[in-house]
Amino acid sequence: MTACGDAQAEEEIEPTQCISVGFSQLGAESDWRVANTESIKNCLSRHNGFELMFDDAQQKQDKQFIAIRNFTQQEVDCIVLAPVMETGWDTVLEEARDAGIPVIVVDRQVKVTDTSLVTAWVGSDFSKEADIACQWLNSFTKAKGIEAGELNIVDIQGTLGATAQIGRTTGLEKACIKYGWNLLAKVPADYTQTKAKEVMQNLLRNYENINVVYCENDNEAIGAIEAIEESGLKVGTDIKNGEILIISFDAANSGLTKVLEGKIALDVECNPLQGAEVQKLVKAVINGTEYNKYTYIEERAFCLDDTVKSVTVDDQECKITVLTQDILNSREY
C-alpha cells in the first residue's frame, strides 16, 4: 500500500481548495473496523487535500441513510460508504446520483438495481478468503490423518446480510458439501467479542462434539476462545486429542497474537488499510482520470504450523505465511 503523505511535512490546505468528502462508516464493532476508519481518515485529511465529514452509523442502516442525505444536501464532492449490509440502497444512492455526487463503496458491497449508482468499490474478496480457509482446513486435516466425517464444525457468523458474512458463510457451506464435513450450526454474533462468547457458550451446551470453530472475524474468535477455555476445554490443532481448532478472519494484531499463542490455527487476512486506494479513487473520479471500477486489496493468510505451505484458489497459488513475532511487530494494525 502506498503512503498517504506526511502530514507534518505538508502545509495545510485551505478548505475551499479541498475535495469535500462525506464518509459514512457502518460502526466501530471490531478492531478491524477501527483500523479501517483510521486508515481512510488519515488518507482523506486536510493535509492531503480533502475536507472530510465523518459519520459513525453504529451498525444501523437507517443512520447511514440519514448521513448520506445530509452529505447530499451539503453538496459534497464525493461520498464514501462502508455499508452495514448489501441491500436497501437504491433510493438514497439515486438521490446522490441525481445531485451529481459520485459514491465510492468500501469494504462490503451493495446490491442495487442500477449498478451505475456506485461509481467504484474497493475492498476484499470475501469468497476467496473463505476458499483459502476451507482448502487449508481440508489439507491440514488430511495431513494429520483426520477423516472428513470426523470434522464437526460450528460457524460463528458476522452480521447477517453483510458482504463478508455472505462470502465467508457461503464458502464454508460449499466446502462442507464438497469435502463431507459436518456443519452443526450457524449462529450470527455481529462481529463482536461479547456476543461471540455468548454464542459459543450456547453452542458448547448444545453440541458435545464440536472440534472446529469457524469464526468470521478475530473479535468473534477471541470471544469463542474465552468461552471454550472457561468451559475447561482446550483450543489448538490436535483434534484427535480433544483440542478445538479455531479458524478466523481479519488478521488484526489481536487475532495474530492468538495465532502466535497457538490458539487460532489459521487467520486469513482482510486488510483494513484501504485509505490509500480510496484516496486515489476519489482524486481520479473528481479529476476525470482513469480508475478501476473494482479494486481488491492484497492479503495473506497466517498460521503457526507449516504443515500446509500453500493452497490453490481459482488456479492461483496462495501461500500460507508462517507467523513470527517479527512479522507481527512489523504490521500496522
Characterize the structure shown:
37% of the residues lie in helices and 21% in strands. The chain is built from 10 helices and 14 strands. Strands 7-6-8-9-10-12-14-13 form an 8-stranded mixed beta sheet, sandwiched between helices. It has a 6-stranded parallel beta sheet with strand order 2-1-3-4-5-11, with helices on both faces. Helix 5 (163-179) links the parallel strand 6 (152-157) and strand 7. Helix 2 (61-73) packs parallel to helix 3.
List keywords for this structure.
alpha/beta, 333 residues, eight-stranded mixed β-sheet, 21% strand, six-stranded parallel β-sheet
Contiguous runs where pLDDT drops below 50 for at least 5 residues: 5-10
Roughly how many Å is the radius of gyration? 21 Å
Q: How would you describe the oligomerization state of the chains in this entry? A: single chain
Number of strands: 14
Give the N-terminus to C-terminus distance in angstroms. Answer: 13 Å
Strand order of the largest sheet: 7-6-8-9-10-12-14-13
Query: How many H/I helical runs?
Result: 10
Main beta-sheet annotation:
8 strands, mixed
Q: Strand percentage, roughly?
A: 15-25%
Determine the mean pLDDT.
94
Overall shape: it is: elongated
The helix fraction, in percent, is 25-40%
H/E order of the elements? EHEHEHEEHEHEHEHEHEHEEEEH
Structural class: alpha/beta
